[in-house]
């Protein structure tokens, strides 16, 4: 029970968070103000906005001339209120995601160029110096000529430090002033120590023992160069991690063709207003969300849902921004624009999820917070140990060990280990039509041991369909369907709708009907083309004296397969047996097999009677099922499995499954990009296929594995690197790390982590 | 040698005091005109005092091109935002209870703290 309560707590908080995010998205608006010149204006504008009904809070930022308004009120009303107060206002020309991305890429390119130049200058000095040290001469200071030569090199190194490494020193100083320490602190201390020691050797060689008159200018230049190179390469690799977001943003068209005052006009997407009429021609992208009011077409929604088949759209159907119009021309009314479109919300959600951390990532957070000062202390202790107990030249050993400890210990790889993998993992899932809400859901999915599947709409299509038409010898199947569809065209019964739909799918047109009569609880009768037609259950046929012969057995057999059989008679003689059922989705069986193959206990949940549930479960390959479960009892079934020690995933198609979805360790909603589905579940499967579940779990496991590899890699650099750098292996193996090697290791630790995270991009969900 | 050792120990004590024990003054968020500049590996100011139980807006101005400064995270609030370069970004925080809340970049190299009083 305690466990269940914990789950409830967890989800209670999560729900509050979801609600907050949702509210925030709908109610927060930012406006630019013109004409405000004093603090008095601020009060006046705030008061004007607060008097608008629906506004809950208005706050002006005088420095930026912006006002932030909370409340579900249209921007035009707010602007009017501000204008009435004597000021000007306009909506923030909120940068589109596209522009923001372009700007970011431009900034990244400039930064990359700068880092590469800095790296070239630093290594341009460091590499020849290192080669000189290794091949030609010892880097010691004994003669006056050497002092002069090394002084010049020292000044050149100072130039490199100022040009290529200035950002480290300024950052270290700023950070230190703020009583915090970061990567820059370690680099500045390490390279600064090496350079200062070398300059002491150059200026005052007499204060340093003969053996320790060694300069480390090459280490300073190399470390700065290598770290700049590492940062540049990391920047490149980082760019690739956000491919998924780029692709999603790329789905948004830049312009829309709206019909205003009877004329078609192309306008930027940001200017499309609610209720605008938008025309989309074949081959064009749907610019905003809306409802079709004219025309008929097929729309490719695969980029959002992963579903390859185009979806037919006619009047009153919804269209979603970013999807591609394939065949016909349509006019639709804009129902959601800008940041409210389903695509914009999905992009926002993926971005949020990419930046959230799974519980495993918090370990690195705790360590990172204390790491730098601890490393500084280890460097001092190491230097003191060498000075007190080390062999000669103790001073040189002390400097080398302290410098190396500082350089190798940088914890930035540790900080990157989790976010990089989460970014790729969540993006990978989004490409497969699986929207993961946060890092916690991503991690928990990898641990799921039992998966509860709601039957209707999850395993099955959720809409009854004609599954069998068994005709009496010599009777034509299409003819039967045409007659029955004609007979049922006036009925609104779900089973009747299934027959009419089936005829429509086959392109069969209904015939004229006369004398229609619905016999409550039994069926219908009417006259079509002069023939008396009768369609209904066994009782209706018996009452009307229609002989059923061996069709009764056939009907029973169909019933056992969870189908509803209905008889059809023409002029008092049985013509056919039509069975209607909610069919199992085409790929449900394969997807369930995938889950079971991965060791997950699959359980079906349904409100249907036991016989139907048994038949569907058997057909779907599920051994366990809960039948006749009331909607309010669904969450209890989740709890039951949790009490058995299972980590439970619950999959449902939305609102009526909400309590069970919240109770489960991970709730999966089958959605088609609607707000409710996106906002209410931990994970949303954009297409109806249950393969999304197996995909989500596969991505989740791969991401967790990737995070662990990254954390291991980052820890190894630090945990193994620091003691070696401090000289712990020296007494046993005479091994002491060079500061240059430490610089290279530090620079490439982050690169390793980002590259490993990028490896996840190659992960193929279907192979797992 | 004794002097060097004493200096070393004093240096360690200074590190402990400077980075962990010393509590620098917090800057009051005041009349929402405070802009937090993201530059040179730091948030300036990095300690910000905000009132409890009311929603506040923090304005960030990122001047640092380094990619790790691009995202600011408020882990306790489950909030993360992308900061554009050289543009002010307003981040609305929900009402918070009294206490201290960290914010930092993805790598945790840029660190700041909200003091909610």
TrEMBL record, chain A:
<keyword id="KW-0813">Transport</keyword>
<keyword id="KW-0406">Ion transport</keyword>
<feature type="region of interest" description="Disordered">
    <location>
        <begin position="1"/>
        <end position="21"/>
    </location>
</feature>
<feature type="transmembrane region" description="Helical">
    <location>
        <begin position="395"/>
        <end position="418"/>
    </location>
</feature>
<feature type="transmembrane region" description="Helical">
    <location>
        <begin position="186"/>
        <end position="208"/>
    </location>
</feature>
<dbReference type="InterPro" id="IPR036412">
    <property type="entry name" value="HAD-like_sf"/>
</dbReference>
<keyword id="KW-0187">Copper transport</keyword>
<keyword id="KW-0186">Copper</keyword>
<dbReference type="InterPro" id="IPR044492">
    <property type="entry name" value="P_typ_ATPase_HD_dom"/>
</dbReference>
<keyword id="KW-0472">Membrane</keyword>
<dbReference type="InterPro" id="IPR036163">
    <property type="entry name" value="HMA_dom_sf"/>
</dbReference>
<keyword id="KW-1003">Cell membrane</keyword>
<feature type="transmembrane region" description="Helical">
    <location>
        <begin position="367"/>
        <end position="389"/>
    </location>
</feature>
<feature type="transmembrane region" description="Helical">
    <location>
        <begin position="115"/>
        <end position="136"/>
    </location>
</feature>
<dbReference type="GO" id="GO:0016887">
    <property type="term" value="F:ATP hydrolysis activity"/>
</dbReference>
<dbReference type="InterPro" id="IPR001757">
    <property type="entry name" value="P_typ_ATPase"/>
</dbReference>
<dbReference type="InterPro" id="IPR008250">
    <property type="entry name" value="ATPase_P-typ_transduc_dom_A_sf"/>
</dbReference>
<dbReference type="InterPro" id="IPR018303">
    <property type="entry name" value="ATPase_P-typ_P_site"/>
</dbReference>
<dbReference type="InterPro" id="IPR027256">
    <property type="entry name" value="P-typ_ATPase_IB"/>
</dbReference>
<keyword id="KW-0479">Metal-binding</keyword>
<dbReference type="InterPro" id="IPR023298">
    <property type="entry name" value="ATPase_P-typ_TM_dom_sf"/>
</dbReference>
<dbReference type="GO" id="GO:0005507">
    <property type="term" value="F:copper ion binding"/>
</dbReference>
UniProtKB/TrEMBL annotation, chain B:
<feature type="domain" description="EfeO-type cupredoxin-like">
    <location>
        <begin position="12"/>
        <end position="116"/>
    </location>
</feature>
<keyword id="KW-0472">Membrane</keyword>
<protein>
    <submittedName>
        <fullName>Plastocyanin</fullName>
    </submittedName>
</protein>
<keyword id="KW-1133">Transmembrane helix</keyword>
<dbReference type="InterPro" id="IPR008972">
    <property type="entry name" value="Cupredoxin"/>
</dbReference>
<feature type="transmembrane region" description="Helical">
    <location>
        <begin position="6"/>
        <end position="22"/>
    </location>
</feature>
<dbReference type="Pfam" id="PF13473">
    <property type="entry name" value="Cupredoxin_1"/>
</dbReference>
<dbReference type="InterPro" id="IPR028096">
    <property type="entry name" value="EfeO_Cupredoxin"/>
</dbReference>
<keyword id="KW-0812">Transmembrane</keyword>
């Amino acid at each position: 029970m305690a466990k269940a309560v914990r789950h409830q707590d967890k989800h209670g908080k999560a729900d509050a968070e979801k609600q907050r995010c949702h509210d925030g998205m709908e109610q927060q608006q930012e406006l630019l103000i013109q004409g405000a010149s004093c603090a008095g204006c601020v009060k006046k504008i705030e008061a004007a906005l607060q008097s608008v009904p629906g506004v809950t809070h208005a706050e002006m930022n005088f420095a930026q001339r912006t006002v932030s308004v909370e409340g579900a009120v249209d921007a035009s009303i707010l602007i009017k209120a501000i204008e009435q107060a004597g000021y000007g206002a306009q909506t923030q020309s909120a940068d589109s995601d596209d522009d923001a991305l372009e700007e970011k890429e431009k900034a990244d390119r400039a930064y990359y160029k700068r880092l590469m130049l800095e790296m070239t200058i630093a290594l341009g000095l460091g590499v020849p110096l290192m080669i000189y040290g290794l091949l030609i001469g010892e880097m010691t200071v004994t003669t006056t000529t050497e002092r002069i030569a090394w002084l010049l090199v020292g000044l050149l190194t100072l130039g490199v430090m100022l040009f290529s490494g200035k950002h480290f020193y300024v950052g270290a100083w700023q950070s230190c002033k703020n009583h915090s320490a970061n990567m820059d602190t370690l680099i500045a201390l390490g390279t600064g120590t090496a350079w200062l020691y070398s300059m002491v050797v150059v200026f005052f060689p007499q204060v340093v023992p003969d053996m320790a008159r060694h300069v480390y200018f090459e280490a300073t230049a190399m470390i700065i160069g290598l770290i700049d190179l590492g940062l540049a390469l990391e920047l490149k690799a980082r760019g690739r991690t956000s491919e998924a977001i780029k692709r999603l943003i790329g789905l948004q068209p830049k312009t829309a063709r709206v019909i205003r005052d009877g004329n078609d006009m192309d306008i930027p997407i940001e200017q499309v207003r609610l209720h605008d009429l938008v025309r989309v021609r074949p081959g064009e992208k749907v610019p905003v969300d809306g409802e079709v009011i004219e025309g008929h077409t097929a729309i490719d929604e695969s980029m959002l849902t992963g579903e390859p088949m185009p979806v037919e759209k006619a009047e009153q159907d919804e269209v979603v921004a970013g999807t591609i119009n394939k065949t016909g021309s349509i006019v639709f009314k804009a129902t959601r624009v800008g940041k409210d479109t389903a695509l914009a919300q999905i992009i926002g959600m993926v971005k949020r999820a990419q930046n959230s951390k799974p519980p495993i990532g918090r370990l690195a957070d705790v360590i990172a917070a204390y790491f730098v000062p601890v490393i500084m202390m280890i460097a001092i202790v190491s230097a003191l140990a060498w000075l007190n107990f080390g062999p000669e030249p103790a001073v040189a050993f002390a400097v080398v060990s302290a410098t190396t400890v500082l350089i190798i210990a940088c914890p930035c790889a540790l900080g990157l280990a989790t976010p990089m993998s989460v970014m790729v993992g969540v993006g990978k899932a989004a490409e497969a039509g699986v929207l993961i809400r946060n890092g916690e859901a991503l991690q928990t999915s990898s641990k799921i041991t039992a998966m509860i599947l709601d039957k209707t709409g999850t395993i099955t299509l959720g809409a009854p369909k004609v599954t069998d038409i068994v005709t009496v010898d010599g009777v034509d199947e299409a003819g039967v369907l045409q007659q029955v569809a004609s007979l049922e065209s006036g009925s609104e019964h779900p089973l009747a709708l299934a027959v009419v739909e089936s005829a429509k799918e086959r392109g069969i047109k209904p015939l004229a009907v006369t004398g229609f009569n619905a016999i409550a609880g039994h069926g219908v009768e009417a006259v079509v083309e002069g023939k008396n037609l009768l369609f209904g259950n066994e009782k209706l046929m018996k009452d009307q004296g229609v002989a059923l012969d061996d069709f009764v057995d056939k009907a029973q057999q169909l019933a056992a397969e969870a189908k509803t059989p209905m008889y059809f008679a023409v002029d008092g003689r049985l013509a056919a047996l039509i069975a209607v059922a909610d069919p199992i989705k085409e790929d449900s069986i394969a997807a369930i097999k995938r889950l079971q193959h991965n060791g997950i206990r699959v359980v079906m949940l349904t409100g249907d009677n036991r016989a139907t549930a048994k038949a569907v479960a058997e057909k779907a390959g599920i051994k366990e099922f809960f039948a006749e479960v009331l909607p309010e009892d669904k969450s209890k079934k989740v709890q039951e499995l949790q009490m058995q020690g299972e980590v439970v995933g619950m999959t449902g198609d939305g609102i009526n499954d909400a309590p069970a979805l919240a109770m489960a360790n991970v709730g999966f909603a089958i959605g088609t990009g609607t707000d409710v589905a996106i906002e209410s579940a931990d994970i949303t499967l954009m297409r109806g296929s249950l393969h999304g579940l197996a995909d989500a779990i596969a991505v989740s496991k791969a991401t967790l594995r990737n995070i662990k590899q990254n954390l291991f890699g980052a820890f190894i650099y630090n945990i193994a690197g620091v003691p070696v750098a401090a000289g712990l292996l020296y007494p046993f193996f005479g091994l002491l790390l060079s500061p240059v090697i430490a610089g290279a290791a530090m620079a490439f630790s982050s690169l390793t982590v980002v590259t490993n995270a990028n490896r996840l991009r190659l992960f193929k969900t279907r192979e797992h | 040698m004794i002097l060097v050792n004493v200096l070393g120990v004093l240096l360690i004590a200074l590190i402990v005091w400077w980075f962990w024990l010393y509590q620098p003054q917090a800057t009051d968020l005041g009349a929402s005109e405070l802009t937090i500049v993201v530059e040179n590996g730091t948030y300036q100011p990095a300690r910000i005092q905000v009132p409890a139980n009311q929603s506040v807006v923090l304005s960030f101005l990122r001047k640092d091109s380094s990619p790790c400064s691009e995202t600011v995270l408020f882990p306790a609030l489950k909030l993360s935002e992308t900061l554009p370069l050289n543009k002010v970004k307003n981040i609305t925080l929900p009402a918070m209870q009294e206490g201290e809340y960290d914010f930092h970049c993805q790598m945790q190299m840029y660190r700041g703290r909200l003091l909610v009083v």
